[in-house]
Write a structure and sequence with these properties.
Blueprint: H1 18-33, H2 48-58, E1 70-75, H3 78-99, H4 102-108, H5 119-122, E2 125-132, E3 134-136, E4 142-144, H6 148-166, E5 169-173, H7 180-185, E6 191-200, H8 216-219
Antiparallel strand pairs: 1-2, 2-6, 3-4, 5-6
């Protein structure tokens, strides 16, 4: 296997005037500040090309050694969604009944969540996000991936932002354990399911909890 450096190309970078930078940064913040997790979804279908372009955006994320250790399994089949809901609710019921510590249950109480997850069946699309522990090179040789969780986490954040930018609502759902997703979707054991991203239009009567977000001074420090 060759260790020669990869060929390089010129960087495509657009430098913007400070006034434009400020406006774009503010506009993007204003856009994302309206993003909310939705649990009540319409069954309206999503334009396929919109979903595909959002996935392409996620695929531009940085990753350890550029291994791109992610797989996005898009589920729109009614029967598969029903199976995923069944598997998730079984794990969730056990979680709420016996595995969850009381402080976690207390933290979830204001959000009104429980083991019932109808959105997994009602929403038009589920994107099951898998982290690939290993990949294969051009010769088919197995190779280890690096910083897998971090890389997939960045890609997932970019996917959520892209979907919101396109005008779609999302919900991150993490039943545990999630190995049932490998079985249902036929993914190899070397892939670890990290979450189910529920995607669609919010129901007309959708409601969300009245929450606040931390102020900048609470989430960032500046060491000038």
């Amino acid at each position: 296997m060759s260790n020669d450096p990869a060929p390089s190309i010129a960087l495509e970078f657009v430098e913007r005037p400070c006034t434009e930078m400020r406006q774009r940064a503010k506009d993007f913040y204003q856009l994302l500040s309206k993003r909310r997790t939705v649990r009540d979804f319409s069954q309206r279908s999503i334009p396929a090309d919109v979903l595909e372009d959002c996935l392409r955006s996620a695929g531009t994320a940085p990753s350890g050694a550029n291994r791109q250790p992610w797989h996005f399994a898009v589920v729109q089949n009614t029967q598969l969604k029903k199976e995923i809901r069944r598997g998730a609710e079984e794990e969730e019921q056990e979680f709420y009944d016996s595995r969850a510590p009381q402080d976690w249950l207390d933290a979830l109480a204001p959000l009104g969540t429980d083991a019932n997850k109808p959105f997994l069946e009602l929403a038009p699309a589920l994107i099951v996000i898998f982290a690939e522990k290993f990949s294969h090179d051009a010769e088919g040789q197995k190779q280890k991936n690096y910083y897998v969780t971090e890389s997939v986490g960045i890609a997932t954040g970019m996917l959520i932002a892209a979907l919101h930018n396109a005008g779609l609502a999302t919900l991150t759902h993490t039943p545990a354990p999630m190995k049932f997703l490998n079985r249902i979707l036929g993914r190899p054991a070397t892939e670890k399911p990290l979450m189910i991203l529920v995607v669609g239009y919010p129901d007309e009567k959708a409601r969300v909890p009245a929450i606040t977000r931390k102020d900048l001074k609470e989430i960032a420090s500046f060491h000038n």
